[in-house]
Amino acid sequence: MLFVHRELRRERGPAETSRRFTLPFLALLLLLPPHPGSAQDSPPPCSSPEARAFDFWVGEWEVRRSDGTVVGKNSIKKILNGCVLHERYTTPSGYAGESFNIFDVARGVWHQTWVDVGGLLLTLEGGVEDGSMVLKGETVTPAGSLLQRIRWSQENGSPGRVRQLWESSDDGGKEWTVVFDGHYLRVSPSHGRLEPDAGGL
Fold first, then answer.
1. What's the pLDDT at 42?
2. Residues with Cβ < 8 Å from 15, sequence gap 6 or more?
3. If DSSP states are collapsed to H, E and C, what string results for 182-195?
4. 166 contact partners, CB below 8 Å, separation of at least 6
5. What's the rounded Cα separation, in Å, for the pair 146 and 53?
6. Collapsing DSSP states into helix, strand and coil, what is residue 1?
7. How high is the pLDDT of residue 68?
8. Dihedral sign, CA of 145, 57, 60, 100?
9. What is the pLDDT of residue 3?
10. What is the mean pLDDT of the chain?
11. Alpha carbon of 144 to those of 125, 168, 169: distances in Å?
12. Please, which residues bridge with residue 129 across strands?
């Protein structure tokens, strides 16, 4: 019986030895520090200068016309790990619209999708031109196609003021008509009043 028992132990030996070495080895791998080239050392997504070129638009805003008339409020927040700018625009009359904005790394362009309560859909793309964010697109109407162009720029270099100029063209871009010329004044999210650097119109 002792001989048989020893034979059985010898037959099980390789499997047992494998398990004895495999389990501690796996545990050691889990305890080792990450490789220098691992994802933990990679920069956060959407952190490149190009992906942050629209950051000046982020915030809470009071929107006015050039004559100083208040026409609405706009809230632009970073969502989805800071990769997307979510815009929510409202007016006292009940008009509202929202947009999602993202830098497409693969193509190197900014993209915006805008929708509103009237069923309007705008898809615009572009990037920085002469220090301003310029997005362009095309819409189709019963009368034909219209080119759309929207330019966002800081006014006088102030972080508390942004101008949004929306224009359209029905002749292929030869002449442009102003659709909306809005002036953004930054509002403090804590007390709802204009920030000191927002000034006035």
1. 80
2. none
3. EEEEEECCCCCCEC
4. 148, 149, 150, 178, 179, 180, 181, 182
5. 27
6. coil
7. 94
8. positive
9. 43
10. 85
11. 20, 12, 11
12. 132
